[in-house]
Amino acid sequence: MKNFVGFVVLVVIGVMLLLVVQEMPTFGDINNPVHNEVAERYLEDAVKDTGALNAVSAIITDYRAFDTLGEITVLLTAIAALLAVLRS
Amino acid sequence: MFDFVKLWDNSFYAMAIILFLIGFWVMLTHSNLIKKVIGMNIMETAIFLFFVAIGYVNQGSAPILGREGVTFVNPLPSALILTGIVVSVSITAFALALIIKLHSYYGTVDADEIAQLRRISDDSE
Amino acid sequence: MRNIIVRVIARVIIPFIQLYGFYVVFHGHLSPGGGFAGGTIIAASLILYVLAFGLVAEEKRVPERIAQIIESLGAIVYVVIGLVGVLVGAQFLGNKIAGFPLGVPGRILSSGSILILTIAIGFKVASTMITLFNHLIEDEKEG
Question: CB distance B97–C32 less than 8 Å?
Answer without folding.
Answer: no
